[in-house]
Amino acid sequence: MRTILSKYWIYFTIAILVLGAGWIWVSAQNTNSTKTLETAPQEGFLAPNFTLDTKNGTQLSLSDFRGQPVLVNFWASWCPPCKAEMPGMEIVYQEFQDQGFVVLAINVTHQDSLSDAARFVEEQGFTFPILLDAQAIASQAYQIRSLPTSFFIDQEGIIQQIVFGGPIPKADLHAKIEDLLK
User: Deepest of 34, 56, 83, 178, by most Cβ within 10 A of its Cβ?
Assistant: First the structure.
């Protein structure tokens, strides 16, 4: 009888050790993954670079516009506030592009229909670059959680302002761009 109890204790001890080792291994994996998370871009810090295809098939990078003030706007065709603010962006783009101001409108194509986005852009006649984030490259780098989200980036590539939600009133948009151009 004592031999049987000894065997059960041995099996029980082995099972506890295996479960404990498994728990430690899983905990270590979770700890390592949280260490690799990047901090979301913040005002006063360098804007993350990205390279994306345009709706015309060429590639553009944020770094292509170093030395120019840039408005990076994340949008989708199904987002009413996005659609409401983009005509105002076209107006300020037309007004300030001679001073080097650039709008990079990034369609979150991984969450949108390319045909719907293209139709909206064509109907509105936007002249600023439309970038397609089909693989969520820029969306992940900027940790986009809501739409629209706009980043006002100065000539040195530093994020000066971040606006979550929208639409941004045209007067506010105008003032933010004038601040970038100073």
Answer: 83
